[in-house]
Design brief:
With 124 residues, the protein is mostly helical. The protein contains three helices and no strands. 0% of the residues are buried.
Length: 124
């Protein structure tokens, strides 16, 4: 049973609003409407089936929301893995660059050595 006490200096409309809100939360209006007229068995079954489907869909949505949350947490782990992979790739790229530089240096060295020899022969 719902009771609402009117507070001192409170307008009657505010107390009525609180009463209606509490009735809504308790489901009194819904029960009153449900029992205000006779409902055929077929209508009752149809309504209950709709309610069942609605509850199942609501549960599925809730389940999907909770299933998404761990994926977000894993994405942070993936980003850390990506950083580690990037660091590994950078290290490999640096190693490859050093190897390429070494090859370039080897290629440039004979050319530099050949240039003075050519200039010496030109001077003679």
């Amino acid at each position: 049973m719902i009771k609402v006490q009117v507070r001192p200096n409170e307008p009657l409309e505010a107390a009525l609003r609180r009463f209606k809100r509490q009735c809504n939360y308790a489901g009194i209006f819904r029960l009153a409407k449900k029992h205000s007229f006779h409902e055929k068995r077929s209508d009752k079954n149809r309504r209950e089936e709709r309610e069942r489907i609605r509850n199942i869909q609501r549960a599925m949505r809730k389940q999907m929301r909770s299933a998404r949350k761990p994926k977000r947490r894993k994405s942070k782990v993936k980003s850390q893995r990506t950083e580690e992979t990037t660091e590994t790739q950078n290290t490999e790229a640096t190693t490859a660059a050093k190897t390429t530089e070494g090859t370039t240096t080897t290629t440039e060295t004979p050319a530099v050595a050949a240039a003075p020899a050519a200039s010496e022969s030109a001077q003679s």
